Every structure is written in C-alpha cells, then in structure tokens.
Amino acid sequence: MTDGLTLDEALRALAALEAAWKDDDEALTALAAGGPGERALPALVAAYGEHAIDTLMALAFGLRSSMTDEELEELTDAVSSNIGARMSALLAQTLCAWGEAAAADDLAVTKVIACTVIDAMRAVTEEPSKTDVLPLLATFRTYALSHP
Predict the structure, then answer these.
(1) CA separation for the pair 121, 40 (Å, rounded)
(2) pTM above the 0.85 mark?
C-alpha cells in the first residue's frame, strides 16, 4: 500500500467505510477497538481518505505508470494549478487533522469522516449521485489487495 498505509490498515479502513455507510455501530465499535500498535480508527479512516483522494486526483488528471519524468512533472504542474485539486488536498489535510484529534472510540466523528471520504470517492465517478457505494468500496478493496 502507498502513503504509509499497510495492506491491513487499508482493509481495516475500508471495513470502517463500509460499516459507517451501513450505519453499523457494532462493526465500527469492533474496528475502533483495534489492537496494540494500531492507529486510532478516526485517524486511520482519514489517512485512507487522503490516500484515496490523492490517487483519484492523479487518475483524474491522467496519471499512468508508463509516464516519463517530464510527463510526470507536467502532470504535477497541472494538478498544482487546478483549484479543484488544491481544494481536494485541503479537504484531505483537514480530515487528517480532525482524525488525529478525535478520540479513538469516537464513532460519530469516524462516521462523518468516513462519509466525507465516500463522497469524495463518488465525486470523481461519472454520476456521483447514482454511484452505488458498496461496489465502489469493493473496487477499492480489490485494488488494495492487488497492490500491497
């Protein structure tokens, strides 16, 4: 996984996104309990959100694995000069700060962060209001499993 997230963290965050979407407090409580050395759930969900937003922004601007250094530099310049990309980065930073400040077992904050992350994920799809969330999360889970 990229951006400092392990595969286990990405899968835990995705499980939290799904539980928040389903309003499943029991599942969120279990995920919030975590284990020794695990990141607090609100912070983890926010960190995953930052990773997802960054990834989706790069893809929206045409990032490809076969790009040359020059093409990557041009892409970076294009993203940096785009107000939508800058606002997305600000959103991600805000979510991360909020997630870090929240108590590990604050389910209300975790749900708000999770739903904001889901909305950000949906925002880059063709028809955001018609995008089914659970299949979208399944796609992200498959991506995480295939890019550990």
Answers:
(1) 22
(2) yes
